[in-house]
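User: tokens in, sequence out, please.
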């Protein structure tokens, strides 16, 4: 099923309020990303995280990878974090996952796999500052790129973007957002899959 960003937001909020805690949904999302890709052990992995729940998915994924024998590095594109994201950052740190902040001199070419958790479906408008620099660095890295929920910078309803991550694999969370299947999105998404994490549609 393909839905709007607004319906996804309402359904997510309803599910968290009545059925499944946000931390559990975040863990399910991260586990879904982990299970959607089979080549984690093929080389160095970087997870670029933003300040919202999309970034929280990245922190949760970092912990899952570490527990499964993969040693990712987390690169923070924002110093902000959601409350659930802070929880999973703590777990990843306790497991010994290296973390550092992105700047315009950060070299991403040494990574074989890059996970894009910078901007989620709630983003709309013009990408600026550090996020824009990070997106351009990802696109120039030569790595296999996995975008979580949506390529960062893309409008989730229209597929439009002034600049967006070009993903080899986009793992949509919950339900596919309508922007992901537009003609405009095709140049940013080479492969698309969806992970059901138990969100109830409202």
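Assistant: Sequence out:
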């Amino acid at each position: 099923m393909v839905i709007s960003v607004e319906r996804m937001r309402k359904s997510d909020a309803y599910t968290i309020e009545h059925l499944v805690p946000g931390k559990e949904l975040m863990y399910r999302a991260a586990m879904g990303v982990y299970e959607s890709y089979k080549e984690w052990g093929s080389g160095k992995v970087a997870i670029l995280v933003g300040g919202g729940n999309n970034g929280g998915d990245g922190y949760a994924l970092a912990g899952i990878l570490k527990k499964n024998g993969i040693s990712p590095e987390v690169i923070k594109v924002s110093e902000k974090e959601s409350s659930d994201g802070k929880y999973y950052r703590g777990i990843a740190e306790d497991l010994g996952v290296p973390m550092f902040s992105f700047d315009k001199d950060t070299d991403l070419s040494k990574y074989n796999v890059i996970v894009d958790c910078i901007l989620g479906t709630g983003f709309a408008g013009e990408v600026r500052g550090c996020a824009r620099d990070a997106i351009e660095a990802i696109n120039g890295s030569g790595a296999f790129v996995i975008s979580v929920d949506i390529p960062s910078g893309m409008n989730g309803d229209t597929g439009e973007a002034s600049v967006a991550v070009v993903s080899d694999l986009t793992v949509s969370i919950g339900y596919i957002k309508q922007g992901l299947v537009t003609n405009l999105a095709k140049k940013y998404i080479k492969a698309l899959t969806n992970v059901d994490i138990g969100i109830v549609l409202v």
